Amino acid sequence: MEGIVVGMGEALWDVLPEGKKIGGAPANFAYHVSQFGLPSCVVSAVGDDALGHEILENFNSKGLNQLIERVPYPTGTVQVEIDQAGIPQYEIKENVAWDNIPYTARLEQLAERTKAVCFGSLAQRNVVSRNTINRFLDAMPQDAEPLVVFDVNLRQGFYNKEILCNSMERCNILKINDEELITVSRMFGYPGIDLQDKCWILLGKYNLKMLILTCGINGSYVFTPGNISFQPTPKVEVADTVGAGDSFTAAFISAILKGMPVTEAHALAVRTSAFVCTRKGAMPVLPDELRQ
Questions:
Q1: What's the rounded Cα separation, in Å, for the pair 132 and 103?
Q2: Is the pLDDT of residue 90 over 80?
């Protein structure tokens, strides 16, 4: 395959009250990209254990392309509790397989054929996976102007200013939510201005093509140099919000790669995310009216 869209980072099990479901933003992202008809691949690592084998079998059953190494660490798990508003709370286990994604010749070959990649801050909590992500970005074809999406995910203190700064310097599309933006702004030393001004500062400081700001029930914004797209959040009956943000990113990037204007890509992303909220788990099959 050429022109591949890659989700890179954590592959794990979300242990929910009703049972376990495969999770991790990279797999959610890659799966939904594939539903929009683009070649995608998830990059991660699992343990040589029953949970790891089950992840690989599940991805294969979904037709999800993967480059997932087996490493001598346990497969990752996250204990997820859903509050009364349907918002997940996470307890993420440490020193697991996806903290130790190796950089291999196969991974370098994939990087050379990648036209868009999405990575987050959580997968960079360990130096091994952090170095692998950066080497992957270095190996991507720079002359083709690939889309490099940094999806901020501040979890349990698994981040610092250095990782965030480096990732923002490496990306050309930043995705962040309103709570994360407040935290980042405090770290970077400009807490006293409104959210839109913070976004304009980041867009200019890091020379971004786009900055996506999601604000939960208060809508979402896409900032591009000189323009803002705003979409309200649709009112739906929420089953849970696990993976909704990843489906938003996948729909938006898929639409941009297919040549849709930012406003139309944004509208599709909002509709896709709203649908995912109406289903349990992060990887529901999308209806034809969204995929087409």
A1: 5
A2: no
